[in-house]
Each structure stands twice: as C-alpha cells, then as structure tokens.
Amino acid sequence: MRIVEPCFTILDELDQQSLAVRIEYCGRICYKSENRIDRNSAIPFVRKMAEYGHNSVLEMGVVTFMVTCATFEPLQALYFLQPKFLQIDQLESHCLIITGSIRAFREMLINHPGDGISRSIGLFLRDRHPYFFEALPVSETAPPQGISVEKVPLSAVEQFAPQLLAKHRHLAVKFIVSRAVTHELVRHRPCTFLQESQRYCRYSADKFGNEVSFIKPVFFEPQSEEFAIWRQSMEAMEQQYFRLLETSTPQAARTVLPNSCKTEIIVYTNLLEWRHIFNLRTAAAAEPSMREVMIPLQQAMQDRYPSIFL
C-alpha cells in the first residue's frame, strides 16, 4: 500500500508539441502505458484512436482557425448547421474565428460533408494530418472557392483580447487525486476528460509497484485515531483486491476498491470554463479534497492569465 499527496500539473508545455504527440500523451494515461511512448509512436497511436472511434482521446487536440469568406452565404450556412463543440466568433462581416477539437472537426465533416466551411477546414486538416481523416468523406477535390482557411498559432491566440482569449484558449491540467474528487470533476460538461482506468490497470503489476496507491485524506491528522482507522481499511481493501485478482480480471476486482484510490485524470477545457470551475470548486462550501487542489491551481492560473482570473 502506498499513500500519496494530491497534486496537479498544468500541461502548457504540451501545447508546444504536435497534435499527434499531445493526443498520444493524454490518451495513454487511461492505460498507464506512457512507457510505450517513443519518437515514432504518436501517429500509429492516434491513427488507431481515429479508426476505433475513441473520440474522447481525439478531443485532446484543439486547433484555432481564421476562416474568411468572399460572401456571407457560407457563414450563414454554417450557423444554420449549429455545429457541435465549437467556439465561433465573428470578427468582421465575412471573417470567423473557430476553435475546436479534432473530434469536433471530424464530426462536422462527417455530418455536413457538403458544407463549404466544414469541407474547407476538413481539407486543411487532412492535408497536414491525414491520419485523423482516413476513410472520411474528404475527396481529392480542391477546397470550395471563396473560402480561405488559416491556422491561428497559439502565440497569436495568446494575444487575443480577454473576451476572445477566454473562449479560444484551451488548457489541460493533469490531476493526481482520489476517485471521490474525479467523480465531481467529470460533472463539468464542457470539459474533456481522460482518466486512469481501473478496468485495465492491474495494480499487482510491477509498473505499479505491486501495490495500490491511495490519496492521503485531507480530513484526518496523520497521528489521529481516524487516520489509523482509514489506513487499516485501505490495507484491507488492497488485500481483498489482490485476492480477487488471483481468479478475476481487473475490471471485476476493482469492485472492492474505495473512493480513496489514487487516480490520474486530465481535464481539458477553455479558460472560460476553468473560471466557472474555480467559482464552484474553491468556494467555502466546496468539498475539502477538491479545494485542496483547486485553490492553488486557481492561483497558478491567475499568475498566467490575470485578465481572465481576476
């Protein structure tokens, strides 16, 4: 049995990597297979995710585009489609800023292959990242005339005015927390989540140290009677889990594991939603284990984006 402190890491350095690299890094947290990452592993990994329809993994790559149209008709057509999971702002009469995940752009193309803007963005991405768009309805024809698509680099997104920055800047945070905390985190609908899977992770394996890890509870002092009771309970659950693994699969044995189990989760969303999360999860009435990580995370975000997190 291992007891660990809760913590978080803002994955802003990951934003400097390619889409395939960042998606692989996030995706492998589910199986705790980060040891399989090498210089050639990213594209085969994301190609498999796209082929199998593991859409939550493809949500971990976000791109911002500036779309300029010669006339208003393509913009009007896009609005009528009501595309899902996109942030869209109109800069000028014929110019849009559109931010979305690889999943969002794939589904926009699948659902609306005849739409000019959907097709133009799909062709743009297909030319640069074909492994995301294999077997999708993107032909070899030229993009529709009168529609220009330009990728907005992250450095330019960072220079947006606060109102646009909050909507179009997405940031991922990796948490090491208890299952009790992640049960609450995943209730934030506009976010994307990837989490360590007890269904596939076998904690009796060497890479887990042949032990189950538990998050130190914020509620009990280490020398208290309550902490001793908690520790004895975790030791008993670990023993029962290992006994079940002798004859059962991890997905069956996990049924005895408690909320105190350590888990890793990546939460990915825009700054506007992070602000909403902090408003809820740092309040005096919020769950203490949540406040334990959210209060210092909020301070770190304030240091990075003072115009958003006042």
If you had to describe this structure to a student in words, what would you say it looks like?
This protein is α+β, with helices and mostly antiparallel strands and 310 residues long. The protein has two domains: 2-16 and 169-304, Gyrase A, domain 2 (2-Layer Sandwich), CATH 3.30.1360; 19-168, no CATH class. It has 13 helices and ten strands. The protein has helices spanning 19-27, 42-52, 55-58, 73-81, 102-111, 116-128, 154-157, 162-168, 179-185, 225-245, 250-253, 271-281, 288-304; strands at 2-4, 7-10, 62-69, 86-92, 95-101, 147-151, 170-178, 192-195, 213-215, 262-270. The strands form three sheets. A four-stranded antiparallel β-sheet has the order 2-7-10-8. Strands 4-5-3-6 form a four-stranded antiparallel β-sheet, sandwiched between helices. The longest helix is centred in the last third of the chain and has 21 residues, at 225-245. The protein starts with a strand and ends in a 6-residue tail after the last helix. The mean pLDDT is 95. GO terms for molecular function: flavin adenine dinucleotide binding; NADPH binding; thymidylate synthase (FAD) activity; thymidylate synthase activity. Pfam families: Thy1. This is Thymidylate synthase complementing protein ThyX. InterPro entries: Thymidylate_synthase_ThyX (IPR003669), Thymidylate_synthase_ThyX_sf (IPR036098). It comes from Desulfobulbus propionicus (strain ATCC 33891 / DSM 2032 / VKM B-1956 / 1pr3).
Helix content: 40-55%
Number of domains: 2
So what's the CATH class of the largest domain? Alpha Beta
Fraction of residues in β-strands: 15-25%
Please identify, by name, the CATH architecture of the largest domain.
Answer: 2-Layer Sandwich
CATH topology assignment of the largest domain: Gyrase A, domain 2
Order of secondary-structure elements: EEHHHEHEEHHEHHEHEEHHEHH
H/I helix tally = 13
**Record field, number of beta strands:** 10
Unreliable spans are none
The largest pleated sheet is described as: 4 strands, antiparallel
* Alpha carbon gyration radius: 22 Å
Query: What shape does the CA trace take?
Result: globular
Task: Give the oligomeric state of the chains in this entry, treating copies of one chain as homo and distinct chains as hetero.
Answer: single chain
Q: Strand order of the main beta sheet, please?
A: 2-7-10-8
InterPro entries: Thymidylate_synthase_ThyX (IPR003669), Thymidylate_synthase_ThyX_sf (IPR036098)
Pfam families: Thy1 (PF02511)
Protein name: Thymidylate synthase complementing protein ThyX
GO molecular function, one term: NADPH binding
